[in-house]
Amino acid sequence: MESLVFDEELSGGQKVRSAKRTTAPQENVPKPSLLQQAITALMIIGPLAGLIAAIVIFFGHGITLVDLLLALVFYAITGHGVTAGYHRMVTHRSFVAKRWVKIALAISGSLAFEGAVATWAAQHRRHHAYSDVIGDPHSPYLYGQSFKERAKGAFHSHIGWLFKAQSVDVEKWAPDIAKDKDLMFISKIFPLLTIISFTLPALLGYLFTFTAAGALGGFIWGGLVRICLLQHSTFAVNSACHLWGKKPFITREGDEARNFAPLAIMSMGENWHNWHHSVPRSARHGVKRYQIDTTARLIWILEKFKLIKDVHWPTKEQINSRTKMYKLETSGMQ
Ligand SMILES: [Zn+2]
Ligand SMILES: [Zn+2]
């Protein structure tokens, strides 16, 4: 039953949206062990400590051009690896990439320190199947309506959920990925890729300057600071983009996904989350002209160079039919 919901959701079809809203069946998922929780805490606190260290160093010594470039370039490459690769290509099948492009995007996303591609995608499909009802791994709305409960929900949706028991069954939620040997191999070597994600900017920092300070700067800015900002940008799509912003498009009842404009650049277009929940398979999330969506731009370039095909671009009719105001106006005219 669950996989049926997921398939229709992915297709962006109308069927699931008129279907009755379902919550997840009870599942006995073991709580993460203390060791697992400690590793998760380290993965979040480590980059945050790096960000704080970088701010302190910045006020003492400023930032070198090499540090800044390493931070920006690694942010752009690994960030778009998550948004175009993990999210739009693997999870929602918004386009089909040539094999080496698929591998490159999945590896870039793995360098973002957000978990292996197969589990990330399975978890995210679960979020779409049960958005803001029981079963959603990171909804901010499951604790209650009082101020305290809402604050607790906001924390849960941002990072708290990472420490809780989660059902991530790749076979069930992502059978297509489980069959993809390339993606499963990249998932398997995720720990190695996280080490590369830290050591590569440090190595480049050294090669550009031939100094230990250059290597340390690369490690802090291209590694820790970049990862911290990227992590919280992704977390904010789960928290802020379900809490604040506009809901111009039709989504399923109770689905609180919103378009939260301030996150546009940092989240590379993932903030136009209301449209994304309205038509999950759409390759473009910022469907209005002024809505910056660098991920969609990258997909457009890849398509122009014939590196990807079967791109699910939103059509004008689709946008109109999913717009609440348009629906109201046209039904009023009849
Ligand atoms: Zn969402
Ligand atoms: Zn999604």
Could you characterize what this model shows?
This protein has 334 residues and is mainly alpha-helical. It has one domain (49-333). It is 62% helix and 1% strand. It is built from 17 helices and 2 strands. A two-stranded antiparallel ribbon has the order 1-2. The longest helix has 28 residues, at 34-61. It is globular, with a radius of gyration of 20 Å. Residues 1-20 have low confidence and may be disordered. The chain binds zinc ion (ZN) (2 copies). One zinc ion is lined by residues 87, 91-92, 124, 128, 276, 280.
The radius of gyration is 20 Å
**Number of strand elements:** 2
Number of helices: 17
Q: DSSP strand (E) fraction? A: under 5%
Order of helices and strands: HHHHEHHHHHHHHHHHEHH
Spatial arrangement of strands, main beta sheet: 1-2
Task: Describe the largest sheet.
Answer: 2 strands, antiparallel
Helical residue percent band:
55-70%
Total number of domains: 1
Class by SSE composition: mainly alpha
| Low-pLDDT stretches | 1-20
Please report the distance between the alpha carbons of the first and last residues.
38 Å
Bound molecules: zinc ion
Q: Which term fits the overall shape? A: globular
Average pLDDT for all residues: 87
Concise summary:
The protein is an all-alpha fold and 334 residues long.
Features:
334 residues; mainly alpha; 1% strand
List the helices and strands and how they pair.
Layout: H1 2-11, H2 15-18, H3 34-61, H4 65-91, E1 96-97, H5 99-110, H6 117-129, H7 147-158, H8 170-173, H9 175-178, H10 181-188, H11 190-209, H12 212-238, H13 240-243, H14 273-278, H15 294-304, E2 308-309, H16 316-322, H17 324-333
Antiparallel strand pairs: 1-2
Helix pairs in contact: 1-6, 3-12, 4-5, 4-6, 4-11, 4-12, 5-10, 11-12
This protein binds zinc ion (2 copies).
